[in-house]
Amino acid sequence: QVQLVESGGGLVQAGGSLRLSCAASGDTFSLYALGWFRRAPGKEREFVAAINWSGGNTYYADSVKGRFAISRDNAKRTVWLQMNSLNPEDTAAYCCAATRLHWLKLSNYNYWGQGTQVTVSS
Questions:
Q1: Residue 112, strand partner residues
Q2: What DSSP state is assigned to residue 42?
Q3: If we measure between CA atoms, which residue out of 34, 31, 63 comes closest to residue 48?
Q4: In this structure, what is the dihedral angle of CA atoms 5, 34, 79, 3, given to the nearest 10 degrees?
Q5: In the chain, which stretches have pLDDT less than 50?
Q6: What is the DSSP letter of 32?
Q7: Which residue from 67, 92, 70 is spatially nearest to 81, judged by alpha carbons?
Q8: d(CA 10, CA 63)
Q9: SS3 40
Q10: Would you call 14 helix, strand, or coil by DSSP?
Q11: Other CB atoms within 10 Å distance of the CB of residue 21
Q12: Is-contact 87 42, C-beta < 8 A?
């Protein structure tokens, strides 16, 4: 098993940037694909971005493509989400998640962090 802890959330003005971090402990980090998901108040959880075990492949939701970037460092056991050009619609609790199964099947993500809040003011 892997344990995940997010950090880096906060309050930012529209147009600003934030960098979220997710630190892992437990099992061998490089065995896992990692993803970021978010849930806004009153809405379903939605996929944001994912990265495969090596970091060589990434996948983004259309709503964040070109603004967000996911990356990882297996030696540091950390995955990041760089968020640029933020807008109020990005306001949500952001969680990182991990899977040892196929990384592009979103229902495979079965290890979750507690989340970090991102609030974008207009």
A1: 97
A2: T
A3: 63
A4: 30
A5: none
A6: -
A7: 70
A8: 20
A9: coil
A10: coil
A11: 16
A12: no
